[in-house]
Design brief:
The chain folds into two domains: 142 residues, Fructose-1,6-Bisphosphatase, Chain A, domain 1, CATH 3.30.540.10; 114 residues, D-Maltodextrin-Binding Protein, domain 2 (3-Layer(aba) Sandwich), CATH 3.40.190. It has seven helices and 15 strands. Strand 3 and strand 4 form a beta hairpin. Helix 1 runs antiparallel to helix 2. The radius of gyration is 18 Å and the shape is globular.
Length: 271
C-alpha cells in the first residue's frame, strides 16, 4: 500500500516552496498571454520549475505533468504528479488573494492526493485517500473538514467560475450548460473563481461548485479533497468518466443534489 502520509507531507512541502517563489510577484508582475489565450507570469514558471526539480530529485521514478512545461519523467510510472503553480493567474497582478497552487497525485491513473494552497491568504486544504480532508491557516492548527449536506438545489448555496460556455454566454466549442436554470434554482448563488469555490465545498461553506472549462492541472488536486470531505466530484458529461481528464468539473456535497444539478445543467442536452 502506498505511503500516502509521506507523499502528502512532501506535497505540502512543494506548496510551501512554491509560495516563496510566487509571493514576491504579488502586486508586482506583468501577465503575458499564451497561445491558448490564458495568462502566465514568471511566478507560474519559476514555481513549477522548482516543484519539478524537487519531485525528480526525491522521486525520480515519478512522472510530472504541469501547466507550463508539459510532461517529464518515466513513461510507465505508476505515479504522476499534476501541477498548477498559480491557478487563477489573472488575480495575481491585480493583488486579489484568491489564486491558488494546485498539487495533485495520480496512482495508476486515479487521483489519490491533493493540496489546494492559497499563498496570499495563508490557507491550505489538503487530503489523501483514506486520511480525510483537512483545512489549515497560519493562525490555527489543522482541522478536519467535511461537506455540509442538503438534499435539494433549492436548499443549496452554489457557485460557478463564470458564465462562459452557457446559455448566458455561449462558447464556440465544448459543453454548453443551462447556467441560468442552475442560478434560478439554487437557494443562493455566487460567482466564485477557480479553485477557491471547490475548497469552499470541502469546508462545508457552499454545497456545489461548477467549472465548465478545465484542464487536468485544474482538476487533479481538487478531486481527492472533495471526496475525502465526503462530497462528490465528477465531469459534467456522462461520456467522460475520467474526471481528471474530463475537461470540466462539478463538485458538491453529494447525494441526490449532485444528480439534480447535472440534470438542471443538461436540460434536454445529451452529454
Amino acid at each position: 500500500m502506498a505511503d500516502y502520509r509521506t507523499l502528502l507531507d512532501f506535497a505540502r512541502h512543494l506548496a510551501r516552496e512554491a509560495e516563496t517563489l510566487i509571493m514576491p510577484y504579488y502586486y508586482n508582475c506583468v501577465a503575458e498571454f499564451k497561445a491558448d489565450g490564458s495568462e502566465v507570469t514568471e511566478a507560474d514558471r519559476s514555481a513549477e520549475k522548482r516543484m519539478r526539480e524537487l519531485i525528480h530529485a526525491s522521486h525520480p521514478g515519478h512522472r510530472v505533468l504541469g501547466e507550463e512545461f508539459g510532461t517529464t519523467g518515466p513513461d510507465q510510472s505508476a505515479y504522476q504528479w499534476i501541477l498548477d503553480p498559480v491557478d487563477g493567474t489573472h488575480w495575481l497582478p491585480l493583488g486579489v488573494p484568491t489564486f491558488g497552487t494546485l498539487i495533485g497525485l495520480l496512482h495508476k491513473g486515479q487521483p489519490v492526493l491533493g493540496v489546494i494552497a492559497f499563498p496570499a491568504m495563508k490557507e491550505v486544504v489538503y487530503a489523501a485517500r483514506g486520511m480525510g480532508c483537512w483545512y489549515e491557516n497560519e493562525q490555527a492548527e489543522p482541522v478536519r473538514v467535511s461537506v455540509k449536506r442538503v438534499k435539494t438545489l433549492s436548499e443549496a448555496y452554489c457557485s460557478a467560475s463564470g458564465p462562459h460556455n452557457s446559455d448566458i454566454k455561449p462558447g464556440k466549442a465544448g459543453i454548453q450548460v443551462n447556467l441560468g436554470d442552475y442560478i434560478r434554482a439554487a437557494g443562493r448563488f455566487r460567482f466564485v473563481g477557480d479553485c477557491l469555490q471547490h475548497a469552499l465545498v470541502c469546508r462545508g461553506r457552499i454545497q456545489a461548485a461548477l467549472d465548465v472549462v478545465m484542464k487536468p492541472w485544474d482538476i487533479a488536486a481538487l478531486v481527492p479533497c472533495v471526496e475525502e470531505a465526503g462530497g462528490k466530484a465528477t465531469s459534467l458529461s456522462k461520456w467522460a468518466p475520467d474526471v481528471v481528464f474530463g475537461g470540466c468539473l462539478l463538485s458538491s456535497c453529494g447525494g441526490s443534489l449532485h444528480q439534480e444539478i447535472l440534470d438542471t445543467l443538461r436540460g434536454t442536452s445529451d452529454w
